[in-house]
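Q: Got a minute? One more chain.
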Amino acid sequence: MALISLEKEADLLSRVSNGDEKAFERLFYAYYDSLGAFVYQLTSSQILAEEIVQEAFIEVWLRRESLTGIASFKSFMFVLTKNKMLNALRKIASEKLRNCVWQESLEPYQSAEPVEDPIDHYKSILEEAIQKLPPQQQKVFKLSKIERLKQEEIAHLLNLSPETVKKHMKLALKFLRNYFADARIDMPLLVVLLSRFFR
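A: Always. Here it is, folded:
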């Protein structure tokens, strides 16, 4: 985690509260790993740790107007993340208990109208956007974000120059940003999604 002074942190929080996306990214990458390690230490689940931390940051962005009153963002994030972790563990325990009862007792749950997880909604939009990329941009994007290949490796694999690969990646990210903007989804959520589903 990159250390951030309290003075710098206050400045970043002020900027985020005013919708500054770059300030949000700075905070996201500064605290993401330490928060993830905190959750992993208590749950022993890397997947659960990533999900909880990313959901915490999504909540931060969606409620960014209230950030200026926070004295310590680090303490705030650890409390928020811990609460989300406890809620997730309660949900998991509840689901395990529910799976142990008779099928008849599950009927109210089965007939209830399912509530869509906002994360799943954002993910479906991201996947939809990726499918709309031009073929070559889509290949480059997937090789970079899913296969985690380096620029030079992608260039060799697709018989392209590194500069062409860089250009395709830049155009792909620009398209995704515009697609999210058209869907009225804030850009910082794209940062979180890319980290969550293509890490």
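A: Residues 118-197 form a domain with the Arc Repressor Mutant, subunit A fold (CATH 1.10.10.10).
Q: Perfect, thanks.
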